[in-house]
Specification:
The protein has twelve helices and 26 strands. The strands form five sheets. It has an eight-stranded parallel beta barrel with strand order 1-2-3-4-5-6-8-9, surrounded by five helices. It has a five-stranded antiparallel sheet with strand order 10-11-12-17-14, with no helix packed on it. A four-stranded antiparallel sheet has the order 15-16-13-18, with no helix packed on it. It is about 25% helix and about 30% strand. The chain is an alpha/beta fold and about 525 residues long.
Length: about 525
């Protein structure tokens, strides 16, 4: 992406007046493991956790020694800013020009770096001849372009942004009304199938902006498309999050949730065009939060910043990158490097403070700490219908949580499953007290009190999905834990509040009685889910 920055309106966009709260909002609350051997460059530090750290390059700037020196030293994944887009590679129909794209690929591969291809099909930066086409002629021209370009670079591209920015802004969740969309709703699928045929070895990504906030309609629309593609066997391997942020569109506090939920569909997630307008510590902490969120998701395979120096950026007046115009490292660079060096993967570490009621136990582990807050992670064992009671220290208060439903803000907190397994975490404001909270675990099925049972029945099935219904008896304040089969994912539910999308789901009453149901995407597995009930 290199074009004039539009005002990107999203559902629930924060006002620019909230810019002062950025440092609070961006902290994702995601714990990461202890540091490994510190890398002195971005690529070396990212490699410690098996990830890449990349940048976008312009062929015309490679002769700038400061620019190319930084790029060579710091980054191991290269994206062409404009040189592989449709107008650059096919300026006249069926007349292809790969000269500048080849220059980028040669520069990268000769230095042992990998290349992300950007982008095969896009409503923008189309050559004039394509802009004037429509219908089946445009569809065939698009597929020919995808095939020819992907074939030319076959074996040289780590991942392709096959389709770029195909969904509309705002709260509709609709496809963008582009000339490509008007060729038929299956145009995205057709592009992915053509790309796979042309280069079976490249990862195939869908790439978009303003898909960072899990609650936004655009994010949900892309998620539903990817889920549908995976269920039907459409070849998609990854989802790219452009991650263009500023004071009016800061890094959302649920960023980690978004990345994890997409990854749970069975695709890699990649941050593909990261830039954050601002300066100083506020910008640095936002960058830290993005990196922290990626590193907590095992399938977040890498991060690309969209340019080298502030003056190279398409948003130069916003000073959004890691190096200033003279090539000096900014505070944001230091924050990113430190976070990369803090370790990667899922929260973990030596366990402390195990507690339980005999039916389940919980292990509490200290995570990252910075400024006025710190992370704590919890691992539950022995039950899936657990309730964890957390007692925070004097003055501490909850800032964020992940992978569990957490109620309360200070003193005593209560955590219950939300369908994301038995490991969860919280971020606490310390208020000068960094004492690790204590926790105890109780399981509803561990004995005592009211009991309940649940009966599972197969319902209708059609195409790629099927229904399952659940009848609860013996209690009215029940919690039903549902375990879905491998590959299955939730499409819909009724008569209960159901949390989670795959693996383990949790259902609780929503005022519609004790019988409820779900629709599951089967992904080839029509095994009836199992369920247990607790009250």
């Amino acid at each position: 992406m290199t074009r004039a920055l539009p005002l990107r309106s999203t559902n629930g966009r924060r006002s620019a007046a909230l810019a002062a709260l950025v440092a609070v909002l961006i902290t994702t609350g995601v714990g990461v493991g202890s540091a490994q051997a510190a890398g002195s460059t971005l690529e070396a530090a990212a490699a410690e956790s098996g990830r890449y750290f990349g940048t976008a390059l312009a062929a015309g700037r490679l002769s700038d020694s400061t620019y190319s020196t930084i790029a060579n030293r710091e980054f191991d994944m290269i994206t062409a800013e404009n040189e592989m887009k449709m107008d650059a590679t096919e300026p006249s129909q069926n007349q292809f020009n790969y000269s500048q794209g080849d220059q980028i690929v040669s520069w990268a591969t000769s230095r042992g770096k990998q290349v992300r291809g950007h982008a095969l099909a896009w409503h923008s930066q189309q050559p004039g001849w394509m802009q004037n086409m429509s219908g089946s002629a445009l569809r065939q021209a698009m597929l020919n372009h995808v095939t020819q370009v992907a074939t030319h670079y076959r074996g040289k591209i780590y991942a392709w942004d096959v389709v770029n920015e195909a969904f509309a802004d705002g709260g509709s969740g609709a496809r963008r009304d582009s000339n490509l969309q008007r060729t038929g709703n299956d145009w995205i699928e057709a592009a992915f199938r053509a790309a796979r045929a042309a280069d079976p070895g490249a990862k195939l990504c869908y790439n978009d902006y303003n898909t960072d906030n899990w609650s936004h309609a655009k994010t949900q629309a892309v998620y539903n498309m990817v889920r549908d593609f995976k269920a039907r066997g459409v070849p998609i391997d990854c989802v790219g999050f452009q991650a263009h942020f500023n004071s009016g569109n800061p890094v959302p506090s649920n960023y980690h949730t978004t990345l994890q939920n997409f990854a749970d569909l069975g695709v890699d997630v990649q941050i593909t065009e990261l830039d954050i307008e601002g300066s100083g510590s506020s910008q640095a902490e936002q960058y830290r939060g993005v990196v922290q969120a990626c590193m907590a998701v095992s399938r977040c395979t890498g991060i690309t910043v969209w340019g080298v120096r502030d003056t190279d950026s398409w948003r130069a007046t916003g000073t959004p990158l890691l190096f200033d115009g003279n090539g000096n490292k900014k505070a944001a660079y230091t924050a990113v490097l430190d976070q990369l060096n803090s370790g990667g993967g899922t929260p973990g570490g030596p366990g402390e403070n195990p507690g339980g009621d005999g039916s389940c136990t919980v292990t509490v582990t200290r995570g990252d700490s910075w400024g006025d807050r710190f992370n704590t992670t919890f691992q539950v064992s022995g039950a899936s219908d657990w309730t964890v009671t957390i007692r925070t220290g004097s003055g501490q208060s909850l800032q964020n949580s992940w992978n569990a439903a957490v109620t309360g803000t200070s003193g005593t907190l209560t955590a219950t499953p939300n369908g994301n397994g038995d490991a969860f975490g919280i971020t606490l404001y310390s208020n000068g007290n960094t004492t690790l909270p204590t926790a105890t675990c109780a399981s509803a099925s561990g004995g005592g009190g009211e009991t309940c049972t649940v009966t599972v029945t197969r319902g209708d099935s059609w195409g790629d999905r099927f229904n399952a219904t659940f009848q609860v008896s013996g209690a009215s304040d029940w919690t039903v834990t549902i375990r879905t089969g491998s590959g299955q994912s939730l499409q819909n539910s009724w008569n209960a509040a159901v949390a989670g999308t795959s693996g383990t789901l949790t259902a609780t009453p929503n005022g519609n009685g004790d019988a409820f149901g779900i629709t599951l995407y089967s992904n080839g597995n029509t095994t009836l889910p199992t369920a247990t009930c607790s009250a």
